[in-house]
Design a protein that fits this description.
homodimer; Cytochrome Bc1 Complex, Chain D, domain 2
Amino acid sequence: MSRIHSNWWSNALGCLLLMAWVPLGAQVASAEAVPQLSEEDFGKAEFIYFDRCSGCHGALRKGATGPNISDEKMLKKTLIELEEVIFDGTEAGMPGWGRTGEMTKAETALMAKFVQHPAPIPPEMGLKAMKESHKIIVPVDARPAKPQHDRDIQNYFGFILRDAGKGAIIDGDSKELIEVLDTGFAVHIFRASATGRYFYTIGRDGVVNLIDLYSDKPKVVASVRTCLDARSIDVSKYKGPKGDFEDSLAVVGCYWPPQMVVLDGQTLEPKKVISTRSSTYDTNEYHPEPRVATIVASHADSEWVVAIKETGMVWLVDYSDLDNLKMTQIAAERFLHDGGWDATKRYLLLAANMRDQMVVIDTKEKKFVTKFETGIKPHPGRGANWIDPEYGPVSATTHLGEGKITVFGSDPAGHPEHAWKVVREQETMGPGLFLKTHPESDNIWVDSTLAKDEGDNQKICVYKKAAFDDGPKCWKAADHGKIVHFEYNKAGNEVWTSVWDRKGEIIIYDDKTLKEIKRIKGDWLVTPTGKWNVYNTVHDIY
Amino acid sequence: MSRIHSNWWSNALGCLLLMAWVPLGAQVASAEAVPQLSEEDFGKAEFIYFDRCSGCHGALRKGATGPNISDEKMLKKTLIELEEVIFDGTEAGMPGWGRTGEMTKAETALMAKFVQHPAPIPPEMGLKAMKESHKIIVPVDARPAKPQHDRDIQNYFGFILRDAGKGAIIDGDSKELIEVLDTGFAVHIFRASATGRYFYTIGRDGVVNLIDLYSDKPKVVASVRTCLDARSIDVSKYKGPKGDFEDSLAVVGCYWPPQMVVLDGQTLEPKKVISTRSSTYDTNEYHPEPRVATIVASHADSEWVVAIKETGMVWLVDYSDLDNLKMTQIAAERFLHDGGWDATKRYLLLAANMRDQMVVIDTKEKKFVTKFETGIKPHPGRGANWIDPEYGPVSATTHLGEGKITVFGSDPAGHPEHAWKVVREQETMGPGLFLKTHPESDNIWVDSTLAKDEGDNQKICVYKKAAFDDGPKCWKAADHGKIVHFEYNKAGNEVWTSVWDRKGEIIIYDDKTLKEIKRIKGDWLVTPTGKWNVYNTVHDIY
């Protein structure tokens, strides 16, 4: 039985302060009130929690984008109250898991009981366990020296088929499906290696797959599990005086354990674990679960830009010497989420989505520049960069919390008067996840995946760079599912998007005419979500 | 009641490995067997554990220089067995706390029961709690602009009076006691600010005191508590293109919570908490309690060299921009303890005392150089640097585990063939804590504080730099207590040492003749241990 430690820490030494206790014994006090759960049900609830809840509430339930839902707090509510919230959701942004059909009535009842139990602490995962999970399926020297086909891998697309636990590779030129690959649970993103030869996938379960695009049929050539819960992966892109790191390393950003893991880029052999457990940027209080949000590879230096969500820190991690690891830890804002480069790839623009702000990091000077409000929960994805006729180079973000695109100046050298200031705003159909453009395009494509009004989340809106304030052209692109995420082809003249449901579709548009070129359907198209064009991903074109 | 989490993490996802569980429920399983302890006795045991045991076994009892003594392991032993070990000690190095009179029979019995209970996890300590403990007793602008006396503060000595919870300031010129100050529980070290104006003390309880030496009677002008358990403090010494940091910052190295804390050097206002929770340098497994051993300030750059004990990492922390904090994390060896500069102040020489090795860090190139064996548990303190007639510039260490001084080359530029190689060894009276020399001296002074043979720990031995292999001149310097630690005066022609017991003494020798100049006694001299001369501490002269 655990025990509240006595108070000598604060007074036996005649010291200076009254300490706030860690209430170790608090779990014991209300043991009688905790609803019974069988080991089997508890395990089931743990999985549902991981799948649906931990993203917002954290593995330890201490709260993040969602509130703290410790057993202490949850025991103050009735099971009926809890079940209602889980089933119906809240105005504050909690999804109604029962209402949307993602949980059954029995499951929402189970989860109500589960959250009245102390949060089980997931195990650690270190190098030994990772190595045990590591598989080289095709050794490096058994891989082809050049492509075994005459397709252009630079125009390949990697597609997530989320709920199928698969990923699809589609040829952007012929628009043919080349292969569907088992990638494990809920792949979150694809990243292409610096030469474009490999795709890396990271699953919600922390499993990394390395896909060789030189094979006639793209093939998983290595895999490894690096965490129990993950969201991000990126690669080393630097080639210069410090060495050639193209296709040399990959890095995984874990949610649990809170850590980064550096992998060999060719074999996925785990090489280095970097813990992110640390203190919040502002209040300097220890956080037990600072999760790694996005990771972006620098082109100019041997560095990854790593957004640490809960602490609000941005870490620039220099991968050129892992044994003498250089790092810059930049105080930014909470809670950091995703982001991408400005057009010059000097500044990283990151969303601090619980502070309704965008944060600007100067990766050349390796310091914080500024932060500014844009709207409720900015969510730029990688963002979008273009030249505004009046304000010069600008960047933009959508928002999770409101239907709004915010455009801000991002050219401090050429247009200092507009830099990091909001210059344009446009209301959209509803809260969205992504927007996208391309230097060759006149357009900005926007989804409204989270829009509440019937059908609005099935619409696509396109703004003109030359006349942004004139508003978008919008149309309904599907009569089922939700439209989510855009990606250009290599040439920048087509836009690909997903209809996200179990009978998913891929729609390809001509960027100039906004006409539909092709609509891909098929049994294999289960819950298509994100997609990445090799060339645009390698070169950070958005 | 805590619960073993179910195993979905490893198999519900069809993932790749069998995970080793964190046995959260282990505490519950054997609850019947745990001996009863009242809340009062438990608190008393916690304090004794902190005072006597945690240094070696760690706050979480997971082991460090001493073995893991978790409740699971301790429940496999009988209370009688445990009591015997605690009372009598072991050959492996565990002190016999009863035998030496430091614990009563009742206390050793209490501790035997205590270690069969789960280790209580001490609370965190963040900026808010630190600020609540922070006191400015004399504001900066109320302090004198120049010394209020005509003594030479550069030749002041700060003395620890360990068990009195006090510190003494002694004038090195007149050898008069100037002031005894309340410094709180078990001060571990004094450090002088870069100009020498201030002394900083750090207590085992994490309390920092700032002592102004300009006052006629040295005065505590500020205090703060930054951790619950601490060992190290240092100051910012850099003045150059990046700014003038003399007397500007201090940094505390905590044992618990495992963190560094940066303070304003003039007010002790806490500014930044840097967690050290991270992974081991070699196996890359997460360690929950990586304690900060020694911290050494660079003279050439705005950096602290921070030895992280359990992970075996050396962190170079650049304090010139706390909001955009640059750091180099260098893989070294376990368990890092203390150390100091070579004569050029480019290389830091650190003991990895559970690997019987010295580690060499190049602070100019910011990388690991090498590590090499010297003897059982090297313990150099700051070390000692001199010119050997045959091998050129050398450095040396004593050992905790055997009576041996090891001398090694430390001039890779001028004498690369001897650099970081053992060139001389000499057996001493017994295991010791410290050795010391000074550039103006022909001698090296050595204690044998841990010697077991009656009286050997009351002896002092002095070696000649010019004829080290001829062996030392030794003499018995006290008939009570133990001789511990040496410090030169500013001129480098006197050596000060302590007779460590409740009727403590300070002995001052002429370094040339080895004759006793003065022996200071007094009721105030309770357990004098370490001592620091302002000038030598500021300039790292050893």
